[in-house]
Design a protein that fits this description.
By secondary structure, the protein is α+β, with helices and mostly antiparallel strands. It is built from six helices and eleven strands.
């Protein structure tokens, strides 16, 4: 069994409990452009990793106090305070606990400092893209999406980057990039050269299933790409049309 302390971020007050917020999410254009660039670099690989409990690695700048969680007994002021008196006490946060609205921003500042310390520079086009350019030549790229990261470079460079990050955080090495944010990736070579196939069929099927369950039990759908003027038919109507 596992449990995680999550605070009520919806009760935070701007200017009191937090000032600025930022969600470290790389733009789709950044992801696609970076992967396309990396695909055509000789000897480059594209691998993924995940930082475990990422937000808890970041210090919180503001003074934020939270109620003591219900049912929490261990460390109850050495047993000197009864349950009624406990309500007068609160906890002061030292780390960016999940639920606080500034947690993503605090984590991004923390992770950015780590990447900069090992030689990366932040892109001016997207704050979630980092470039490793030691001798006026791009030797590695890192895309950050909250606690996930895609690392591009040759195998030696990628292993070194993962090692440096693992020195500071607990990470999960996901190996070659195959799935990210609901998109499946597959590298290959055809008559035109290297390519990367992107598929979202699982994501699309899940959307349809959710729609059918929650909104319309007999949702109409049509294989894409389709025609804008095409009349959508229910499955039984399609079968009838074929028979006719």
């Amino acid at each position: 069994y596992k449990a995680r302390l999550v605070v009520k971020g919806y009760e935070q007050i701007p200017g009191v409990d937090y000032t600025e917020t930022f969600s470290p999410v790389a733009a789709d254009t950044t992801i696609r452009t970076t992967l396309a660039y990396s695909l055509h670099q000789p000897g480059w690989v594209i691998e993924a990793m995940d930082v475990e409990a990422a937000f808890l690695n970041a210090n919180i700048e503001e003074q934020v106090y939270v109620e003591i969680p219900e049912g929490f007994i261990e460390g109850d002021l050495d047993g000197k305070v009864n349950r009624a008196e406990r309500k007068e006490f609160v906890n002061k946060l030292e780390k960016a606990v999940y639920g606080t609205v500034q947690a993503p921003r605090a984590w991004m500042k923390e992770f950015t400092a780590t990447l900069v310390n090992i030689g990366f520079s932040k892109s001016q086009a997207d704050p979630c893209l980092f470039l490793f350019i030691p001798d006026d030549k791009v030797e590695a790229l890192v895309i950050v999406y909250v606690d996930d990261a895609a690392i591009c470079g040759n195998e030696r460079m990628v292993d070194w980057i993962k090692g440096e990050i693992a020195r500071k955080y607990n990470i999960t090495d996901l190996g070659e990039l195959t799935k990210h944010l609901g998109v499946w990736y597959r590298r290959g070579v055809d008559d035109h050269g290297k390519f990367m196939e992107l598929k979202m069929d699982d994501f699309a099927k899940q959307l349809i299933e959710d729609y059918e369950k929650e909104v319309a039990k007999n949702a109409r759908y049509f294989n894409t790409p389709g025609y804008p003027s095409k009349t959508l038919l229910k499955p039984e109507e399609q079968e009838e049309a074929v028979n006719q």
